[in-house]
User: Fold this.
Amino acid sequence: MRVLSLVGARPQIIKEAMLHREFKEKGIEEILVHSGQHYDYNMSDVFFEVLEIRQPHYNLNVGSGTHGEMTGKIMIEFEKVLLREKPDLVLVYGDTNTTLAGALVAAKLKIPVAHVEAGLRQHPKDMPEEINRIVTDRVSQILFCPSELAVENLRKEGITEGVYFTCDVMYDLFLKMKPLFRYDLFRTLGLKENGYIVCTIHRDFNTDVPERLREILEQLRRLSKRYEVVFPVHPRTAKRIREFGLAELLNEILVIEPADYLNMMGLIEKSRFVITDSGGLQKEAYWCGKRAIVVMPDTGWRELVEAGWNVLSEPDEITEKSEYIDNHVSLPENVYGEGNASEKLAEVILQL
Assistant:
């Protein structure tokens, strides 16, 4: 079995690295292609060190551009690689332009496509990531779903063949990294366990609309009367706060620079709950046993909302939702599996 993996963003690189270890162990030959869409290889990254991430066999160097320009460039260059390598299977990850481009090229060359993180669905339906997910799932022969809800989403769309509930590869990663979590920031900031909340806001629909960003900061200021609010400020958010003249709303909030993964997980682990619009952090908070207010109209990880663990919120509802999220409820177990998704996925590929 000869597999070709296409990646183009940091989370995809990490997922591929987790799978590569299993492929290597099971004797599956893998060729790694990086589109160059988002993330330069940085071998000092903690994930690169721990996972021993290797350099790709090919880098398409597409750079940035409009959606059409980027997708087109990837398709042109990726087709050349596929014609040269002739793999048995093309593996794509997530919901980026790289994902879509790779799936389309492979499908048109009649090479089977496997989609890692298939079946996620989210409103609004016209968002680029949602379009990428839906089209990729339509042209994929193998669909690896991270949750039972993802399987159900595909079933509702009439897709039942080649669907596998393999659980979430990112949970495998979380468990691997957990022994390395650091608490330097927790100690340096003088925080008390369960006495503070962590907030991260970075999505454009929250940061680029002055009224929404102001409301979020107002709500955080209100919450600071009850809890310490720790706010690692994303560069996009910091820029908009300056542009919109909202800096005075941060006076009662503990503003810090963005934290590295290991310290961020240490902060989450000892927090009371989380406020975020980050897809990854919604799950990481759950894995840390912490609930999250998700400042989004919808989420691709809706199973945590449906389980009653996380809650969706508009900016002006954050304080109200904090009353709900602060109550104790039983942690829903094994929503994303038990940490062996990489092994299950490799087993499926081995048997194709």
